[in-house]
Specification:
single chain, 162 residues, mainly alpha, 6 helices
């Protein structure tokens, strides 16, 4: 039987997850929040990168962002690899947990549901970080392929003639 504390914890997790998603998604561009500030900084960065001939600093910055995302993606995979074997060990885990103070032991099906739920959370995290890696790769291609300052100035002079 599912304990009330399990239902409360699961409900709180769902409320926080959906509430955070709603809170971040509902904020418009006019408000001052971290997403808007970051968007403004990235826009300024891209505008300034076109004015520079040397793009080394831009590529180094994107490389650092890629390393962070790949670290979290690989950490998610390691956690998934640790959670998969735990699905079948509900009884042994209950024996271990029963000797710890302030803990509640769960029946094996509840243990398996909790472990599968954690697997879903970390699988979602892995796919999100993998998608961000792909976007960073696209960003690095765009930064490298942007026109050089000399070509940009030449294009501006040509456009001014017309």
């Amino acid at each position: 039987m599912i304990e009330y504390i399990d239902l409360i914890a699961f409900s709180w997790l769902v409320i926080c997850w959906l509430g955070y998603d709603f809170l971040i998604g509902s904020q418009n561009k006019g408000t001052c929040n971290i997403a808007t500030n970051m968007y403004n900084h990235i826009s300024n960065w891209m505008k300034e990168s076109i004015k520079r001939d040397d793009r080394d600093i831009d590529i180094i910055t994107i490389t650092n962002l890629i390393r962070s995302a790949s670290f979290f993606a690989s950490t998610s995979l390691i956690i998934i690899a640790g959670l998969i074997p735990m699905i079948g060990y509900g009884d042994k885990a209950n024996l271990f947990i029963s000797v710890l103070p302030y803990t509640i032991s769960n029946p094996s099906p509840i243990w398996e549901m909790k472990t599968i739920f954690l697997l879903l959370i970390f699988a979602n995290a892995f796919f999100k970080f993998s998608w961000s890696l792909r976007q960073y790769n696209y960003a690095s291609i765009m930064v490298v392929s942007a026109p050089k300052k000399a070509k940009l100035m030449k294009l501006q002079r040509i456009m001014l003639r017309f």
